[in-house]
Amino acid sequence: MSECRRTFLKRAGCAALGAGSLPLLAAAGRSMAEIASQPAPAAKQWGLVVDLKKCRSASLRQACIEACHAAHNVPSMPEPRQKIEWIWSEPFGAVFGDQIHARTPDQRKTEPVLVLCNHCSQPACTKVCPTGATWKRAADGIVMMDMHRCIGCRYCMAACPYGARSFNWQDPRPYIANIRPDYPTRTKGVVEKCDFCAERLRTGGVPACVEAAASVAGGAGALTFGDLADPQSAVSQLLRQQDTICRRPSLGTGPSVFYIL
Amino acid sequence: MLRSILRGNIRFALLLAALALVLAAGLAAYARQYSAGLAVTGLGREVTWGLYIAQFTFLVGVAASAVMVVIPYYLHDVRAFGRMLILGESLAVAAVTMSMLFVFVDLGQPRRVLNVLLYPCPNSLMFWDVLALGGYLLLNLVLGAFSLESERQGAPPPGWLKACVFLSIPWAVSIHTVTAFLYSGLAARPFWLTPILAPRFLASAFASGPALLILLGLILRRFARYDPGREAIARLATIVTYALLVNLFFVLVEVFTAVYSGVPEHRHALEYLFLGLDGHGPLVLWMWASVLLSVGSVVVLLLPGVRRRDGWLAAVCVAVIAAVWIEKGLGMVVAGFVPTPLGRVPDYAPTATEILITLGVYALGLLVLAVLCRIVLEVRARAARG
Amino acid sequence: MTDRPIDLCTANGPGRPTGGRENRASDGRPRFIGYAGPSKIYLGLAAGLLGLGFPLWYALALGRPAEMPPLEMPAGDVRCVEDAAYMRAHHPRLLRQWRDAVVRDGLDSYVSACDGRKCPMSLTRTCLACHGEHRGFCDRCHDYARVGPKLDCWDCHLDPVAKGLSQNRRSQVLRPRMTELPTDSGTGSRIQTTLSIAPHQP
Q1: Which of C189, C190, C192, C193 would you mutate first to test chain A, the one with the most A CBs within 10 A?
Q2: Partner-chain contact A188 B2, CB within 8 Å
Q3: Structural domain tally of chain C?
Q4: A 154-193 residues with CB < 8 A to B
Q5: Which residues of A touch C108 (CB under 8 A)?
Q6: Considering only alpha carbons, which residue of chain C is nearest residue A144?
Q7: Are C193 and C102 in contact (CB under 8 A)?
């Protein structure tokens, strides 16, 4: 009896394993083919230049953050460690830890800086994603997130040297004051971050933060958005004319967000 | 066979029942996490991996250490490991099962776990780790099952099994190497960004795994009248000694580089672990305990008179396992996140739910180990009866 | 049995008879612990089939056809993006195509294969613009057909009706109905904005 049962269990196990893995193999084959047929890289690279002086205005920073978070249904989590942020403000000393020294004036160290995803040219986060849920879009260089595919392993958060990624530790909906119905919220267990307002770029707009900054008094030119690959774009011209820095260039990630000192 | 596992031995049945109880508690806690999200853990946007991923790292090491019995037996013809071999494979099966489960319980969207295979991304070490662990699990299951089966039938094992044995040796090394690469490839985390991480992982694994195997052997000798052999245990103790020494050496190498060079970002994580950083030092006592246990174990293991006594040996093995568990299962993962890219020193402490789920996974692993050991003993006992 | 382990290095196990099975009784017959005779096997098979076939024979013997719940259909004379038969059969595929086209390929609008009309690929703005609340349409049919564990679209995508928005606000949200859609707004963006799917043949 035990003899028969063991043989039966063995065969059934092998059959189940075989039958179960077939669709997996087929799907894996399909997506491998997809990877192989990816279009040529970066025809364009969206980038942002932030003017630190103009961003000293608290109302300007507030306007940018609120516009972004309202546009994307970003929740305000009560627990600080569960905070979700696409764009936010950090002291200069924390953002540019490798640019300050013992004699840097406190005023500089504490100067607030707007930070967001850098949409790097060599992103550390997309490299580690095990499912391709985050990837660098070839057409315009945006580091995208596919919330439908993300398994919530948070490897990208460990890999990002800028702390630009947030995770939905719980269902975010109860913490969104005014849900904007034409933009999705997120579900618990997925990672999210700034995507340079891909939905606005698609219809010819500019990112919400850029628009909001320009609408504040004295905010013209605080945030300049454009194509880094185009030498005539406003961002390219600014980068030629001004002294700019970017975050942690020594890591080789190649940020697309720059700061005018 | 399946029936005889559950029949007869009341102590064994009690053990299974106790483990099942812990497993049930873990499952209940997981149900809570599944519906409420990972908010029930102590993790946050700054320390994004904690207890689960640390256990995963520790257990991959335990799994890889089966190779420490396989290599002497098959490559150097150390016959003494004959009765230990299948225990090593059983331990590997249980440890890989647990480590995979620890990754699973850490996922925010567990229902989508198959996306790793549906959308394979060869550029991610996580993808390779899933393949390595899955393959290693399968290899050890096949090795254990077929060698036991041929033993049961009194026939020589099939020839292809030897190929599996030789495949399993580099594979064991690879699982822990790939797991180390998972961390050491991240530019964002200076504490992990060191080429010595993989060697260190292997050294500590080859200390903790064989120590666990010795414990298992001693337990089976005491409670199941199965003697894996004095020589096997003595040889394993030697392996533990030298692996532990090498691990201590690697740690010192790392500490030297960080402290002498004085580069802040290399120093900070170590300071956080051993001294406390900006007034945050939740692991300081643990880490010093780990150091003391390691050094103490090495000293005791080097004294032949002491290590030959079962009681002492068992105590030392517990100490070694505790030392490595603290190093990898508590310190290694959390310290990688400190300080954060924005220079903060975050606090992380696992919640009760997190601890319960962790205990549940361990209970499941021990359940698997107990049943596998029982099968081995049963087959051998029957064969001995003729 | 010797207490030596099985040996893979030498051709035969040490001190073991070659090829012999030890699980034999003294008279050489295989020593199975209990052997189920043919009658038992057939009995077991029959019981198994009976159990597996429960949904079938129960439905045949005692079941009544479940009432198809009335689906809340769009008011007025509207046509879906594709014809009803196609949508009934292939809406999961269409929605997945839309999803990947929008999220992964940065595409925006969809050209109907049956009549060339154009619409944004949006669950909320296009589908729900006509179908209203998902509970009365999507969920009701999925519940009836018992498909999928649960429709989790609505964990993220908004259902303006279920959110209790006023009629005014709704029409703002649901602005771009198919017929009102402007043709491609050439924005200089290099992303191709239209997805055309090969016309389906019946």
Answers
A1: C189
A2: no
A3: 1
A4: 154-155, 157-163, 165-171, 187-191
A5: 202-203
A6: C104
A7: no
d(C-alpha A192, C-alpha A236), whole Å:
28
CB-nearest partner of C6 from B74, B79, B147: B147
Q: What single DSSP character describes residue B124?
A: -
pLDDT tens digit string along A162-195? 999 999 999 999 999 888 888 999 999 999 999 9
Alpha carbon of C141: minimum distance to chain A alpha carbons (Å): 23
CATH topology of domain A46-260: Alpha-Beta Plaits (3.30.70)
Domain boundaries, chain A: 1-38, 46-260
Q: Residue A2: how many CA atoms within 13 Å on its side-chain side?
A: 11
Respond yes or no on whether the N-terminal peptide bond of residue B339 is cis (omega within 30° of 0). Answer: yes
What does the buried/exposed string (b/e) look like for B336-361 if buried means 16 or more CB atoms within 10 Å of the residue's CB? bbbbbbebbbbebebbebbbbbbebb
- Judge whether C54 lies within some domain: no
Given C3, C11, C22, which is nearest B154 (Cβ)? C22
pLDDT digits (tens, 9 = 90+) for B305-347: 888 888 999 999 999 999 999 999 899 999 999 999 998 999 9
- The 10 Å CB-count burial string (b at 16+, else e) for C155-189 is bbbbbbbeeebeeeebeebbebebeeeeeeeeeeb
Host domain of residue C129: 84-185
Supply the pTM of this predicted model: 0.86
Across the interface, whether the CB atoms of B156 and C3 are under 8 A apart is answered no
Q: Is A95 on the interface with B (CB under 8 A)?
A: yes
Say if C48 falls within a structural domain.
Answer: no
